[in-house]
Amino acid sequence: MNTVLPRIAARNLLRQKKRSTLLAGAIAFGIMIVTLINGFAGSFIQNVSENFAYLMGGHVFISGSEYTESGRRISVIRDDSIIMQALSESGQKWSSLQKTSETTATLIFEGKSISQNLTGIDLAHSAMLKERLALVSGSWDNLAWPNAIILSQSVAKKLNVLPGDTVVAQFQTVTGQNNVGEFRLAAVTVDSSFIGSIMTYVQLDYLNSLIGLGKNEYMSLGIMLDNLERSDAFATSLYTSMKGMGLQLFERSTQDENGAMTPFQAMIGSQNSEEWTGTQYRVFTVDDVLAQAKQIVVALDTASVAILIVLFAIVMIGISNSFRMAMYERIREIGTMRAVGVQRNEIRSMFLYEALFLALAGAVVGIILALVVMAILGLITFDPQSPVFLILKRGHLSFYLPPLRALGNIAIIAVLTLVAVYAPANAAAKMPPAEALRTVK
Amino acid sequence: MPIIELRNVKKDYFLGKVIVPAIKGVSFSIERGDFVSIAGPSGSGKSTILNMIGLIDIPTSGEVIIDGKNTKGMSDQELTRFRHEVLGFIFQSFNLIPVLNVWENIEFPLLLGKTRIPKNEWKEWIDFLIDEVGLGDWRNHKPNELSGGQRQRVAIARALVTKPSIVLADEPTANLDSATGEQIIDLMKKINREIETTFIFSTHDAKIVNIADHIIRLRDGTIIENRRNGEDIIEEGAAVASVEE
Ligand SMILES: Nc1ncnc2c1ncn2[C@@H]1O[C@H](COP(=O)(O)OP(=O)(O)O)[C@@H](O)[C@H]1O
Ligand SMILES: [Mg+2]
After folding, report:
1. Ligand 2 centre from B43 Cα, in Å?
2. Is the CB of B83 less than 8 angstroms away from the CB of A11?
3. Which atom of ligand 1 has the smallest separation from the CA of B11?
4. Rounded to an integer, what is the distance from CA B22 to the centroid of its chain?
5. How far apart are CA B130 and CA B141, in angstroms?
6. In chain A, at which end, N or C, are there fewer CB atoms within 10 A of the end residue's CB?
7. Which helix (H) or strand (E) holds A45?
8. Which chain A residues are within 8 Å of B51, Cβ to Cβ?
């Protein structure tokens, strides 16, 4: 291959240092912005899932459903020994398990009331609580109380309760009877914390006894893994293992990568299906729950491509004009080359090479700049209680740039630049040599 | 067989709707190895003639036969290839490629396609040419670091590097002082002797014209004098034949 034309193209680029720097700079800026968006989107789902996993107490979940004698469908796991067996037979590793029951209740204190979702877990042994929540008042020691309740600051304020006070809760048992219980406020959590502001935690055993579940029963089992990425594989192998033990299971139809089917949609769908006897289990992952979050990522990525194109439509006009100017400035060189034996298409290629080098240089610089900016942004420590907590990774912004996306952006820029330069390059190629040589500038 | 033959060549330029007849039907032949001068005042049609011989412009009518090949109807690509194979160019304003140094400028035509010179002889040949034009110490310099005379020497080496049958030089001395101009013409003449390349140069400088073996004098797009080795060539077909005898 003839390398002299690319070589000349590269040197021509360096000839107009100011102009080339400006154009490459514009490309670099655009690529930087887009890369930052992509980098943010790339880690967004990861961070949200990881944080949600803590919120929900697991990466993979098993819930049970059964029908009561009166035909009411309730959520319960009555005997988890077979599940534990399935877990160990699945051959997978997990880091912790969390048994959870839930109910909606109206909390009442001295004439004031508020509706809350009560989450029953083993308060005293939950590492997640101490790790993720910050206390305003009360004490972790109070979690030993059998009827302890943890409220967020805003809820505590509305009810005007203080640690030690007793709150009355009105709710329905799993079978639909009205019931009341008394909870003692053990701790109040900082409100700005995402988890803290929406969650109300109570003791699992106490909640179970109030809503009509037995001592070793609960609604769902959360399985915390050491790695979010393993969620789906774990769930699949757990599903297979449970199926192999003859348990009734809902289809894992939620595996659809596009998030077409969320567990909630699946649940609604299955409501219409036939009833079953005994317990039917559902295995799902935090990713299944967050299928919608994936749509945010898709939206971000789509937006980044739109920005890329709009930004570059502008840059491309500049590039196109510069190359038109360059073509007139070098018209006699072009004539000379044509006289000496350079073909038309080679003149065009020479300009296109120049454009390509410009685009690649700008794009590479842009990506490097973006990585630097990402590293700097990643150094900022956010208040772990800040509202953006959910998108943070241990209190820091984090970015993940999928390599294919970076390459894709470079390709888009390269193509757009080539398109922008094609017309002037073609005009240069079509210029009759005699005319090009006669031109005196 | 003449190396170049023009048969009733006309060239009109179009300035909007106005037709400018630049060459009004000329016929002449040029013999291989000659040192030829196209003379005439500014605007007489010298560049137009050289461009048509050099295949960078095509006649409005008539035929240009180079090295026995009628170039009429050739595509742009064929003309370009033909230029590369048989022609070398020297320009009034040197026209070196500014981003290439002396050595690279001379090498450039070799990189553009098939050449007579085997690749392993390129370096030696380019070095020989650089010495021949006296630029041994300047091989790594860029054109903008050279004087006009030096640039034209590079251009001469570049024009010769593919060992073309014909070298065309359109007013090669017009941008040089007269002493440098004479040196350039002398250099061309010396090379013309040594390697038997046909040289055709145009000039409006009467002093330089007379160095040529063959002088074609133009005025207003017609030939007013056609002398080879001191003899007038009157009717070109018969005249050329008589010269050969
Ligand atoms: N592109 C052109 N358009 C119109 N007229 C032209 C063009 N090029 C040359 N001419 C005219 O053709 C005639 C011959 O020009 P040219 O060959 O350049 O002469 P010379 O090289 O002897 O000065 C002149 O009258 C000139 O004005
Ligand atoms: Mg001229």
Report:
1. 7
2. no
3. 12
4. 19
5. 12
6. N
7. helix A17-56
8. 434, 437
Q: Residue A336 and residue B89: Cβ atoms within 8 Å? A: yes
CA–CA separation, B53 and B46 (whole Å): 11
B97–chain A Cβ distance below 8 A for any pair: yes
- Say if the Cβ atoms of A333 and B47 lie within 8 Å: no
* Separation in Å, CA B145 to CA A210, B44, B109, B151, B211: 95, 34, 21, 9, 31
Question: Under a CB-based contact definition with an 8 Å cutoff, are residues B203 and B50 in contact?
Answer: no
Instruction: Tell which residue, A430, A427, A422, A436, has the closest CA to residue A319.
Output: A422
Range list of H helices, A173-255? 194-198, 204-211, 231-244
> Which of B15, B89, B160 to mutate against chain A (most A CBs within 10 Å)?
B89
Task: Give the one of B57, B84, B97 whose C-beta lies nearest to A341's C-beta.
Answer: B84
Q: Which of B54, B76, B99 sits opposite A12 (nearest CB)?
A: B99
Helix (H, G, I), strand (E, B) or coil at A227: coil
Residues of chain A with confidence (pLDDT) below 70: 1, 192-197, 253-274, 292-293, 383-390, 394, 440-441
In angstroms, rounded to a whole number, what is the distance separating the alpha carbons of residues A389 and A191? 12
Sheet strands side by side (includes B231-232) = B87-90, B166-170, B198-203, B35-39, B214-219, B222-228, B231-232
Domains of chain B (ranges, CATH numbers): 4-94+161-244 (3.40.50.300)
C-alpha span between B7 and A13 (Å, rounded): 45
User: Is residue A103 helix, strand or coil?
Assistant: strand
Measured CA to CA, the distance from residue A220 to residue A205 in angstroms comes to: 14
Q: What type of residue is A291?
A: A
Q: Chain B contacts of A342, Cβ < 8 Å?
A: 80, 112
pLDDT digits (tens, 9 = 90+) for A48-73: 777 777 777 888 989 888 888 888 88
- Report pLDDT for B240: 42
Q: Report the DSSP pairing between strands A166-172 and A220-224.
A: unpaired
Provide the pLDDT for residue A266.
Answer: 53
Is the pLDDT reported for residue B83 higher than 60? yes
Give backbone dihedrals phi and psi of A406, rounded to 5 degrees, phi first. Answer: -60, -45
Contact across the interface for B99 and A4, Cβ inside 8 Å = no
Q: What is the pLDDT of residue A253?
A: 61
What residues of A are in contact with residue B57 (Cβ under 8 Å)? 432-434
**Domains of chain A: residue spans and CATH:** 4-52+292-438 (no CATH), 109-114+124-216 (2.40.40)
Residue B90, H or E segment: strand B87-90
Which ligand 1 atom sits nearest the alpha carbon of residue B50? 17
Give me ligand 2 centre to Cα B94, in Å: 14
> Rounded to the nearest whole angstrom, what is the distance from the C-alpha of residue B42 to the centroid of ligand 2?
7
C-alpha distances out from residue A404 to A27, A328, A365, A398, B188, Å: 19, 38, 17, 18, 59
| C-alpha span between A332 and A340 (Å, rounded) | 12
Identify which ligand lies nearest to the alpha carbon of B51: 1
Instruction: Please report where in the chains the tokens 């509305």 appear, as a residue.
Output: A158
Task: For residue A183, give both structure tokens.
Answer: 């909870």
Measure the CA angle with vertex A271, ends A266 and A274; round to 5°.
Answer: 115
- B47 to chain A, any CB pair closer than 8 A? The answer is yes
Q: What is the DSSP letter of B39?
A: E
Q: Which two tokens stand for residue A233?
A: 């594989």
Q: Containing H/E element for A81? A: helix A81-89
Whether the CB-CB separation of B79 and B69 falls below 8 Å is answered with: no
Block residue for tokens 């630029």: B135
Instruction: Express each pLDDT in B21-76 by its tens digit.
Output: 999 999 999 999 999 999 999 999 999 999 999 999 999 999 999 999 999 999 99
B12 close to A (CB below 8 A): no
